[in-house]
Design goal:
0% strand; mainly alpha
Length: 187
């Protein structure tokens, strides 16, 4: 009978440990959910958009710190149109980034450099452009709506043309600019 009592004590300890672990797991899940919600809200605020759009930005790897870079992705896409980013194009993107509060030695600046150093996939660009379209829809007439194509065109023009005697925008860059206009829904 003592042996049966020991098993019962062992079983009781086992179930108590299991209960403690389940509660701890549930608490961690709630904390993570709260953190994700806070992060979505912060991204939505930074981008002046809805939390649904912010959730998509999070899925693409953006957080509250790097969200400032998201409106610059079309510029980066145009810079990569010819397969490489020139120094002039990178400088143009970084200059525009400063107006979005992207400062050296910040996570946003490191993320920006990553996007300029390693070519993102077409899928990444397409998904980001859909997010930008949603931002434009949420904030018609906002800074992004009225300027993203002009900024992108300036990046394209920064490295092209032969002594400004030829068109500074390559055919591939022009094609990307037209795709952006169609996706984002601006002229």
């Amino acid at each position: 009978m003592a042996n049966r009592s020991n098993r019962s004590d062992e079983e009781e300890e086992y179930f108590q440990r299991e209960d403690i672990e389940k509660k701890a797991k549930l608490r961690r899940e709630r904390q993570l959910k709260a953190l994700r919600q806070e992060e979505r809200a912060n991204i939505a605020e930074k981008l002046n958009t809805s939390e649904e759009v912010a959730a998509e930005a999070m899925e693409l790897g953006f957080d509250a710190e790097t969200a400032r870079v998201l409106p610059l992705v079309p510029l980066i896409q145009v810079a990569w149109a010819d397969g490489k980013v020139t120094r002039a194009q990178a400088d143009k993107v970084k200059t525009k980034a400063k107006s979005f509060g992207v400062e050296p030695e910040t996570p946003a600046y490191r993320f920006l450099n990553l996007l300029l150093d390693e070519q993102p996939t077409e899928l990444f660009f397409r998904r980001v452009n859909k997010v930008i379209r949603s931002i434009v829809d949420d904030d018609p007439g906002g800074d992004i709506d009225s300027n993203v194509l002009d900024w992108s065109k300036a990046v394209a023009e920064s490295s092209g043309g032969f002594f400004r005697l030829t068109n500074p925008i390559s055919k591939r860059e022009q094609s990307v600019l037209e795709e952006l206009a169609a996706i984002i829904g601006v002229d």
